[in-house]
Amino acid sequence: MTTQPELAAMHRAIELSACGLGTTSPNPVVGAVILDRDGQVVGEGFHERAGGPHAEVVALASAGPRARGGTAVVTLEPCRTTGRTPPCVQALRDAGVVRVRYAVADPTAAGGGGEELSAAGVDVVAGVLAEAAARVNESWLHAVRHGRPFVVWKSATTLDGRVAAADGSSRWITGPEARADVHRLRSQLDAVVVGSGTALLDDPQLTVRDGTGRAAGRQPLRVVLDRRGRVPVTARVRDDAAPSLVVHEPEPAAALAVLFDRGIRSVLLEGGPQLSAAFFAAGLVDKAICYIAPALLGEGPAAVAPFGVGSIEAAKRFRIDDVELVGGDVKVTAYPAEEA
Ligand SMILES: NC(=O)c1ccc[n+]([C@@H]2O[C@H](COP(=O)([O-])OP(=O)(O)OC[C@H]3O[C@@H](n4cnc5c(N)ncnc54)[C@H](OP(=O)(O)O)[C@@H]3O)[C@@H](O)[C@H]2O)c1
Which residues line ligand 1 (CB under 6 A)? Predict the structure, then answer.
């Protein structure tokens, strides 16, 4: 049974887990809350970076002796193996926790901690708010299951789906609020990817910037897919404001493999049309975030170049997950329909 305070604690733990977005790869994001024997919150924590303490350990440290006889509420099954840090199962037992509530089972070799805790007499309930917790961890879960980074395709278009005008100008299609939202998104993913066309034509910096336009906060790896080595070292995307990487692999899958080997687990694919088409043709887009501005161009490139869809029947379909107004623009979040 899961009590009301435990459910509330899980909501909080999920919120805490999101604080690690963008900094934990190749590890998952995890949040934890400790309740004392009366159900009062006495400790909180989240996993901040690979090699750093796990969420349970941070939360137990903040709870101190008040954890004894209490409950640990965690978004991911506590690990039972020694990685760069000791197993959390042992830390929970040493702290005298008698109940564990977790959301998502750990699909890796570190999984099985729930069973181990049960076998040791701890009252364990799995699957508490699992869907909501898995959503925050979607990149990591996807990367573990498929052995490649989770790809979020982002576009900023007019009402008629165009990403640039006939003269090539594209700044700015959407308003400042939507652009700020993109900066927040960048900060939560491991890498930002564009094609050489965008790097050459727009010369974007692709950093996370604050309101003054300066690079600020955590910076994702900036990646240009440039098969022919056309992007010069003087391109802004290769400046020293943040780390950058030029990848010469001919296929999106091969480029993603290079990124995966570097510990990248999530990617924001920011275009342009040709590279987007290549990713869609290869079935390598896992989520779409589309900002739509109330403007018409009538001509200019569409967000995605042709990728082999010849009929309505063959259309690439999505399931809308969320629609919101961001400033004066609409933000649509969707997942490929076949993965719904
Ligand atoms: N509003 C928006 O959200 C947005 C976002 C991005 C871009 N844009 C607009 O898009 C326009 C640029 O369009 P674009 O289509 O030329 O840019 P792009 O898709 O960024 O770059 C295309 C280039 O990427 C390289 N590439 C590397 N790997 C590839 C692969 N596997 N498959 C296909 N191409 C690969 C190719 O050059 P190599 O063969 O030399 O490698 C290709 O010519 C600009 O006008 C820009 O303003 C708008």
Answer: 155-156, 163-164, 168, 170, 173, 194-198, 201-202, 225-228, 230, 251-252, 270-275, 278, 301, 305
